[in-house]
Amino acid sequence: MYDCTDPATRGPALDEAVHALARGALVVLPTDTVYGIAADAFTPRAVAALLAAKGRGRHMPPPVLVPSPSTVAGLATDVPAEVTALVERFWPGPLTIICRAQPSLAWDLGETAGTVALRMPDDEVALALLARTGPLAVSSANLSGRPSATTAEQAQEDLGAAVAVYLDGGPSRGGTASTIVDITGPVPRILREGALSRAVLAEVVPALAAPEPDLAGQDAPAPAADPVPQDVPPAGGGPAAGPSDAGRDGRGPR
């Protein structure tokens, strides 16, 4: 457990986290909602260890947190202008965008149906780590079926020795789930309305103004207390993304 609340002294903690991720180990980190458990997105055994630590399967691949908007071009393909507009307006922040993944990427996040869910979190510690590691697969720092961790200590109670490094950024700012937008189809659509409302998103992308009839049940406001928009089901050819593992486990979606 490393105290990261003081920017002047968090360097050694970030060093330990970087080294752990490089060897395929897991790290717990704060985000702009609650705590997440992270793995190197390009190390399949590390992603598998992340899912195993939570008690989840490959059918719920973790989203990927990125250090900057420019990372999207390297991870996604066929990215429309609407994504650029949304990212410029809302990143870093509570917006997850499901894109078509670059087919040449050497990673295995699970059963993604060729998609990837991307987000840039608005948290100093998370961004400092991502700046050094690059994209990380991140899911909520809790056992499946347990409440989301709002402190590093709570995460440690759930995950214990399965995680090599715990970065303590203080109590979570927590709150509302991120909003999930799927841009893999012919028209952008909101799969989950969370911290960012449909009306706010429609100011940037007017096509998001009205819900599609078949998505009406998926666009309810997200309850509080879920973190990073982790565990997003594949879009496009796969099932529509609904609540995250938090929703399925009775804790409210991310």
Automatic annotation (TrEMBL):
The lineage of its organism: Bacteria, Bacillati, Actinomycetota, Actinomycetes, Micrococcales. It comes from the Bacteria. This is L-threonylcarbamoyladenylate synthase. Pfam families: Sua5_yciO_yrdC. Belongs to the SUA5 family. GO terms for molecular function: L-threonylcarbamoyladenylate synthase. It comes from Georgenia faecalis. Residues 212-223 have a biased composition (Low complexity). Residues 11-196 form the YrdC-like domain. Keywords: ATP-binding, Cytoplasm, Nucleotide-binding, Nucleotidyltransferase, Transferase, tRNA processing. The keyword Cytoplasm applies. Residues 212-254 are annotated as: Disordered. The keyword Cytoplasm applies.
